[in-house]
């Protein structure tokens, strides 16, 4: 395709102005309009050179830097910018250069950051290597262990950066810890004559000296929790000092390992005493609230949740209106009625920010008195809710909507399995209501995908445990219509609440908490597309919408092709991470311009904030402090990431624990990675990944630089990514969460 423009056929770039302030409002440009706008910018500024950041600022647009760079590269390839620039470019805003800085990898093609000091987050890998992730550098900054300066995994730090020409990457030294991710750790107590030392489970962390006079009954060799009171910044020996806060007992049990995962990521496994006392004192004043709320108690209302759920935070109501339209209410537990700002309960909920779901337990955001009693929408009880109510016409379009405080009375509690049976057989309780709501949900879903939503459903590994918590079966959770029905109405409520807040005041922002998801990194997607092509999958990555379409096509192919299925997790890694922010850039994966989280305040603090701000703005306009709200968004996003790490670790632990029962067994697997040491292989039946090192293979292999193929040194046989193989389980080590395999057939 050629992009040839002239002054006559180049449309004017429209920028909407605020009537009150006169400040241009940012607008995200479609791909074609972005190309034209960049061309116009260069034509009006001959001889000037623009970085992608400059282009965004000059055009006052909300497109991300990757999309701007991609558009700029297309124009350069066509040569249409050549008349306006005095020197050719390697990248957007980076002139040709033979200096070392020209080889540095930087974010979005920007001019590379210079040697200096930057803020970032510490990431300690499983191997013990230390990196600092910064927003300025594409590659993480490597930090030698001797330069950690007491920093630990997850800490926010200042890192002094220099560059390694040999490794072509930024290296650095941590010069200051800005914020500790946690002060509480799990470790093993070692008693000496006059001193106790807790050896932390964490890598790259020294022992913590504790007083032998305050051991809380712990014995030598016990697992304990320790709070570090001095990280050694101010003592000559750099010695950590702390105090034992809990005794877990003899190490090695699954229960202790699960607790360790939570504590090592900074989550409290118990609620502070003042928080528990405060929750017990809350009075349930439902009758006093009736006159202040819209009453739904006479309308058919029900819940659909997992069979073992205890905290029911959402319910649906259904009624046919006099005009023949259908009214569906999305009713959410009114947590903010019970939890007031700046209380002990509120501070603890914010600190946690999320419930953490491990394989065999939940570490809740709120005490049981709140989550499982007062706020849980249990059947046959009057409950206080915050609702989003929608009226649908015959064509399943939303023609009216209402938000406000309500009171409900659920008359049926469905498990997902029970609701699915009604949908499949057209028989049972509330059959008409469920079938009608499912049709509307299907229409909502169809419209979402038509608008460009991505249909990536990752496999969720589940376990069946015995009475001791030992896994006896591994399976993948199956999502059916009953699951998607609930999801569709929650998405609708979240989207419409965000839209309402975005349009509360014309031309003037009312700060709100949005759930955002940026467009994918074009460089990562381009690399992935090349890889996918080697697997026989062609992708169109010309525009964000084409990328979404290609990913959806890949997802369809993966349903029937195991080789293509292996690409799914790799594709997900190319995507941006969803997060919370006061700056709304939309949600790329859902194809929503406006999106928030409103539907799970029992388990997400983001939803608590969303409820408070929305309620204050229903009758008037109330602007919260945006800077403070943005800081809260960052904290909640960070806690969400830590919770996800906990969940992944617990799954990995249980997978290894299950595989321990099958050491020596022979299984089918698929190669999903390779390096110079061996092959990474996923067991087809158990969804667990392990490694077959070349030393255990029938022959040695030479791995191609692309790491897509390896060639047998003796037979010349080629092994490729996605290839089916047969392996034997050699070992499964719980401490390292590693599964060792031996390659038998390939």
Structure keywords:
7-stranded mixed β-sheet, disordered N terminus, 5-stranded antiparallel β-sheet, alpha+beta, 746 residues, globular
Question: What would you note in describing this structure?
Answer:
With 746 residues, this protein is of the alpha+beta class. Helix content is 29%, strand content 26%. It is built from 18 helices and 33 strands. The strands form 9 sheets. The chain has a 7-stranded mixed sheet. It has a 5-stranded antiparallel sheet with strand order 5-4-3-6-7, with no helix packed on it. The protein has a 5-stranded mixed β-barrel with strand order 8-9-10-12-11. α2 (52-59) crosses α3 (65-78). The chain is globular and about 80 Å long. The two termini are 44 Å apart. Residues 1-25 and 86-110 have low confidence and may be disordered.
């Amino acid at each position: 395709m050629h992009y040839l423009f002239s002054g006559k056929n180049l449309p004017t770039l429209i920028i909407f102005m605020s009537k009150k302030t006169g400040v241009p409002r940012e607008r995200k440009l479609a791909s074609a309009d972005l190309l034209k706008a960049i061309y116009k910018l260069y034509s009006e500024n001959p001889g000037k050179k623009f970085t992608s950041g400059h282009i965004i600022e000059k055009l006052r647009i909300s497109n991300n830097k990757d999309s701007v760079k991609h558009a700029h590269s297309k124009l350069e390839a066509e040569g249409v910018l050549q008349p306006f620039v005095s020197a050719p470019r390697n990248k957007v805003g980076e002139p040709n250069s033979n200096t070392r800085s020209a080889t540095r990898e930087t974010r979005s093609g920007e001019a590379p950051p210079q040697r200096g000091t930057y803020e970032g987050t510490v990431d300690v890998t499983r191997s013990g290597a230390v990196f600092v992730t910064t927003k300025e550098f594409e590659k993480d900054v490597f930090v030698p262990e001797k330069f950690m300066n007491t920093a630990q995994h997850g800490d926010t730090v200042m890192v002094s950066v220099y560059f390694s020409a040999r490794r072509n990457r930024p290296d650095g030294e941590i010069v200051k810890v800005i914020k500790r991710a946690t002060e509480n750790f799990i470790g093993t107590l070692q008693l000496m004559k006059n001193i106790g030392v807790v050896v932390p489970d964490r890598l790259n962390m020294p022992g913590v000296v504790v007083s032998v006079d305050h051991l809380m009954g712990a014995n030598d060799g016990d697992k304990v929790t320790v709070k570090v009171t001095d990280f050694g910044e101010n003592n000559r020996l750099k010695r950590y000092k702390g105090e034992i806060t809990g005794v877990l007992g003899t190490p090695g049990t699954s229960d202790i390992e699960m607790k360790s995962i939570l504590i090592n990521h900074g989550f409290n496994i118990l609620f502070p005493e003042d928080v528990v006392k405060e929750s017990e004192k809350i009075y349930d004043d439902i009758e006093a609230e009736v006159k202040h709320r819209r009453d739904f108690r006479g309308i058919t209302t029900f819940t659909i949740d997992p069979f073992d759920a205890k905290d029911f935070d959402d319910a649906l109501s259904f009624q046919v209106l006099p005009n023949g339209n259908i009214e569906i209410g999305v009713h959410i537990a009114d947590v903010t009625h019970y939890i007031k700002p700046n209380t002990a309960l509120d501070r603890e909920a914010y600190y946690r920010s999320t419930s953490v779901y491990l394989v065999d337990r939940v570490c809740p955001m709120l005490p049981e008195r709140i989550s499982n009693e007062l706020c849980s929408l249990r059947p046959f009880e009057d409950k206080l809710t915050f609702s989003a109510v929608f009226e649908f016409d015959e064509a399943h379009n939303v023609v009216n909507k209402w938000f406000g405080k309500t009171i409900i009375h659920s008359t049926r509690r469905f498990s997902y399995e029970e609701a699915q049976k009604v949908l499949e057989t057209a028989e049972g309780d509330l059959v008409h209501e469920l079938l009608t709501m499912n049709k509307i949900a299907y229409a909502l879903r169809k419209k979402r995908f038509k608008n460009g939503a991505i249909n990536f459903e990752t496999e969720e590994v589940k376990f069946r445990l015995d009475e001791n918590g030992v896994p006896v079966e591994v399976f993948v959770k199956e999502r059916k219509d009953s699951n998607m029905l609930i999801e569709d109405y929650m998405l609708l409520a979240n989207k419409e609440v965000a839209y309402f807040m975005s349009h509360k005041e014309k031309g003037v922002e009312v700060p709100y908490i949005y759930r955002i998801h940026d467009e994918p990194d074009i460089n990562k997607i381009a690399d992935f597309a090349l890889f996918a092509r080697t697997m026989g999958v062609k992708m169109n990555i010309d525009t964000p919408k084409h990328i979404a379409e290609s990913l959806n096509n890949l997802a369809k192919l993966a349903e029937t092709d195991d080789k293509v299925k292996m690409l799914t997790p790799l594709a997900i890694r190319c995507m941006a991470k969803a997060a919370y922010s006061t700056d709304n850039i939309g949600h790329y994966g859902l194809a929503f311009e406006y999106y928030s989280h409103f539907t799970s305040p029992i388990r997400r603090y983001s939803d608590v904030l969303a409820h408070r701000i929305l309620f204050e703005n229903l009758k008037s306009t109330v602007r919260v402090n945006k800077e403070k709200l943005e800081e809260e968004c960052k904290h909640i996003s960070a806690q969400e990431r830590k919770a996800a790490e906990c969940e992944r670790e617990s799954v990995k632990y249980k997978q290894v624990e299950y595989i321990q029962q099958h050491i020596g067994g022979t299984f089918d697997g698929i190669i999903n990675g390779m390096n110079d040491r061996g092959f990474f292989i996923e067991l087809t039946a158990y969804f667990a990944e392990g490694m077959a090192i070349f030393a255990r293979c029938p022959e040695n292999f030479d791995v191609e630089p692309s790491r897509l193929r390896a060639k047998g040194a003796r037979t010349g046989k080629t092994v490729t990514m996605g290839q089916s193989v047969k392996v034997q389980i050699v070992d499964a080590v719980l401490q390292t969460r590693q599964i060792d395999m031996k390659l038998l057939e390939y």
